[in-house]
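Query structure, 136 tokens:
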């Protein structure tokens, strides 16, 4: 992720800011100036809950350079109660135990360090909740 993109995405990455489309009600995360579903330009800002459910997941064994030492790790498409879906790394658990339907909390963590600039990039990672452990 190049630095300009990181800075542009600060509101969504650091504050979980999304936009609810005034035309169709779709929650777009990160917020976009034009709704990809109905093309409306009207929306209201909202902050997503720090809880989500895993829709689908996979385990990364061959990681890109910046995540080399974290492999194997799980990534998932998660959905918040507001209906926003996005990809997140799933941490603090055995990657092979991650699966659809799992409840997670979204916790603020260090995502990566840019190799050349050394900029520390923060954001949210998914952590399985205790309620999931209780379901096993
Ligand atoms: Zn829309």
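Result returned for the query:
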């Amino acid at each position: 992720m190049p630095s300009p993109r990181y800075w542009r995405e600060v509101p969504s990455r650091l504050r979980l800011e999304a936009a609810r489309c005034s035309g169709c009600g779709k929650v777009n995360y990160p917020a976009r100036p034009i709704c990809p579903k109905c093309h409306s330009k009207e929306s209201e800002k909202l902050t997503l809950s720090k809880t989500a459910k895993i829709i689908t997941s996979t385990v990364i064994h061959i990681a890109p350079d910046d995540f080399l030492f974290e492999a194997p790790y799980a990534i998932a498409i998660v959905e918040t109660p507001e209906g926003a879906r996005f990809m997140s790394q799933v941490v603090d658990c055995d990657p092979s135990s991650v699966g659809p339907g799992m409840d997670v909390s979204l916790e603020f963590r260090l995502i990566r360090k840019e190799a050349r600039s050394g900029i520390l990039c923060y954001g949210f990672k998914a952590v399985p909740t205790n309620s999931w452990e209780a379901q096993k």
